[in-house]
Amino acid sequence: MKTYTLICFFLALSLILCPLVAMDRTSEVISQEIFIEETTEAEFIEEEKTDTVKVMSVNGNNITEMSLKEYLVGVVAGEMNASYHEEALKAQIVAAHTLLLYTKEHNTKDLNGADITDSGASHQEYLTTEKQKEKWKDNYEANRKKIEECIDEVFDVTLQYENEYICAVFHAISNGTTENATDVWGGNYPYLVSATSIGDKLSPAYQSQVTFTEKEFKEKFKDSDLKFGDKPEKWIEKVTHTDTGMVKTITICGKEFKGTEIRKLFDLRSSTFACQYNEDEFTFTVNGYGHGVGMSQYGANYMAQQGFSYEEILKHYYTGVEIAKV
Question: Where in 3-60 does DSSP place strands (E)?
């Protein structure tokens, strides 16, 4: 009887414990499924945020794919002085990122599947890690760390005008006032209009000079069929300027040229120049460095040193824009 009672007791106990064990194992399985699901979703979100960029080398015509962060490091290395203030570097990073996105949407060049080139003349300059080391030498590690930290702070930030990415161009030094894009390239860019940039005049590289002999001057126009007279001091006949002081047109020996054309012909640092003839030579005195449109990098650094944030810098140089996340 005792044996029977004990058997009944253990049977009853097993009926109670088995469902509890099963329930506990089921909870464990469900927990694992939720964990796996959450991990997969997190990984997916992280994967979504990790963008890549295909960069075409204009020299070798080959295409290299890299992370967006690596690309931005290379652009800042190629385009801006790493010693500049962090807020200026952040402004440059946002401009470079936005210009990349704009180029991907509007590019008309045949890039063979690439997103952008590594050329500052075509798009924006990109330096590989090897070239960064060549440029910075002993400062490579410190400069790289500084730029990467700035990128981390503004990684998702872009510039938009009426909900579209802007053509966020930039230049090294203005003549004290940035240019209207329409005066330089034509077209309609309502956010690329003239802005003051007084700090640029403090740059040691603000003004430059270059001199050409009469023969060298004439050689520049060998494809223009100009009729040069006996008096070189009369070759330059008329010069017109934009409101900012950039040369708009210049008439040489009866033919009118754009200031941008003369800049290219003589390899001048900007289109804000004056030309004087003296003792068988033509001397160009040039103010600023670059096309003058959009953000002045030196001006951005000056503003940062005065306490302005990268957002304030960007809104100063790009009129009417919104700072938005990707």
Answer: 52-56
Neighbours of 69 (CB within 10 A): 17
In a domain, 34, yes or no: no
Q: Which domain holds residue 233?
A: 207-287
Mean pLDDT computed over 119-125: 94
Indicate if the alpha-carbon torsion angle 222, 273, 288, 185 is positive or negative: negative
pLDDT in tens, 215-261: 999 999 999 989 999 999 999 999 999 999 999 999 999 999 999 99
Residue with token string 């981390």? 152
User: CA-CA distance, 88 to 48, in Å (whole number)?
Assistant: 28
Residues 142 and 214 in one domain: no
C-alpha distances (whole Å) from 297 to each of 18, 84, 138, 203, 300 are: 73, 9, 24, 11, 5
Q: Are residues 212 and 122 in the same domain?
A: no
Decide if 247 contacts 271 (C-beta within 8 A).
yes
Half-sphere exposure at residue 44, Cβ-oriented, CA atoms within 13 angstroms: 6
Is residue 298 located within the same domain as residue 238? no
Give SS3 for 1. coil
